[in-house]
Records
---
Amino acid sequence: MITLYQFPQFFDLPNLSPFCVKVECFLRMAQLEYTVESVADTRKAPKGKCPYISDNGQLLADSEMILDYLETQYKINLDASLSSEQKAYSRAIQAMLDERFYWTAVYSRWVDEQTWPQVSKLFFGDLSFPLNKIIPVLAKKQIIKQMYGHGIGRHREDEIYAIGQKDIVAIANILGDKQFIHGDQPTRIDACVFSYLVNFIVPPFSSPLKDEVQQHSNLIDYNQRMMTTYFPELCQPD
Ligand SMILES: N[C@@H](CCC(=O)N[C@@H](CS)C(=O)NCC(=O)O)C(=O)O
């Protein structure tokens, strides 16, 4: 049995971590059975991050490596109908989102002074004094350090948001009027694209990135399509 280790769930959102949403969405797309274990502290995770899975006594970390493993182990191929060129587009989209766009999203939650008080309360509000004063400051410092190491943290706020907004426009243009990224059928990359969009559409955190997503009706419709198909239990009744 597969166990997915991911952060606790908030709002009507599969998860606040896009990487966790990607893996859970893929498990559902592939119709694999799994259970979820909630993780609040990633220090014991195999690579110090979420998500990770256990399967047949093996621990596996990193969303892309987990998907690769599941494809091999369970003979899943959601990309069977794709050409080599389409598979290459998928890889380029995934790299854009996971390796760069992700950090603009992190900025919008952890650094932007408009959103940080809400995020801090959500993540650390239950801690007792003085931990509720110390831990958020240390965690935020750590994130700022990671963003500086990545390079994105060296830009001004308006520059960071401009990068994120251009990435959102690129995704909206790639999707166009198709149902899914590669046409009428969902493929592996849809788990990744959805994981980011849903993380702007559902949580009540305002940011220029959320505003940008909301300007593209095709992205909103796509998100709704993915939600009703794969996470119907989180959809509000009309
Ligand atoms: N490359 C990893 C990235 C996972 C990742 O960055 N997870 C973040 C949450 S979105 C995390 O666990 N951060 C906790 C930490 O860095 O201590 C993947 O694809 O799974």
Note: Strands lie at 2-6, 34-38, 52-55, 58-61.
---
Amino acid sequence: MPLIKLQNISKVYGKNDYKTEALKNISLNIDKGEYLAIMGPSGSGKSTLLNIIGCMDNQTSGKYYLKDNDISLMNNKELSIIRNQSISFIFQHFALMKDYTIYDNVELPLSFRKITKRKKKGLVMNCLKELHIEEQYKKKPNQLSGGQQQRAAIARALCSDAKIILADEPTGALDQKTGKDIMNILTKLNNQGKTIIIITHDPLIASYCKRILTIKDGQIISDIINEHIHQ
Ligand SMILES: Nc1ncnc2c1ncn2[C@@H]1O[C@H](COP(=O)(O)OP(=O)(O)OP(=O)(O)O)[C@@H](O)[C@H]1O
Ligand SMILES: [Mg+2]
């Protein structure tokens, strides 16, 4: 059984004249440890697909199984546990809490865990060190560069220890060099066993991934193994 299994997933927004079919009958399997890029034009349904995979949104029809569990049968509590423990999101604009320090942002996913403050501190500082931003821990997000903010968002994902990382244009707001740094970090995490799915418009960013899915008008138009992985 694949980690992620989508069967005939459709998503319709709105009603009647305002109806948009964002996803049309998508079937897709993603195994544990995959490194997948999702490409396609603006409005093709990429974010809609990622949000359904991340249990942030429901499909209109079709079935979604995550680790063998039918997501539509889960109650809110079960869903929030999955969102908190299994899946981490990284966004183009980082989505850090602006009034929190970098330390507090990275600690956030640990807030529901029953571990001592001291142990939490050890975990958070390790994640910050891994991303080379430990010296910034007392600062607020707006005191960091874009690349540093994205590294803080990845540190937060790391700290949650989620096995699945979903990234919606994580390098979209960064210059090319910083974008490559971020991809090298994500590649390292994939090598450590994380399942990573990244939406990007940039073929260079997609070239880091092992599999490239292209969607257009809510349908998969190609699904290829990347023979030329960027090293
Ligand atoms: N909340 C919503 N309500 C109504 N329509 C929506 C909503 N979210 C997305 N859509 C529509 O669904 C379609 C797919 O949108 P989606 O955001 O998934 O595209 P995308 O591929 O991520 O585009 P982009 O590259 O611009 O981010 C678009 O036509 C969009 O207008
Ligand atoms: Mg999008």
Note: The helical segments are 46-53, 76-85, 102-107, 117-130, 146-160, 176-191, 203-206.
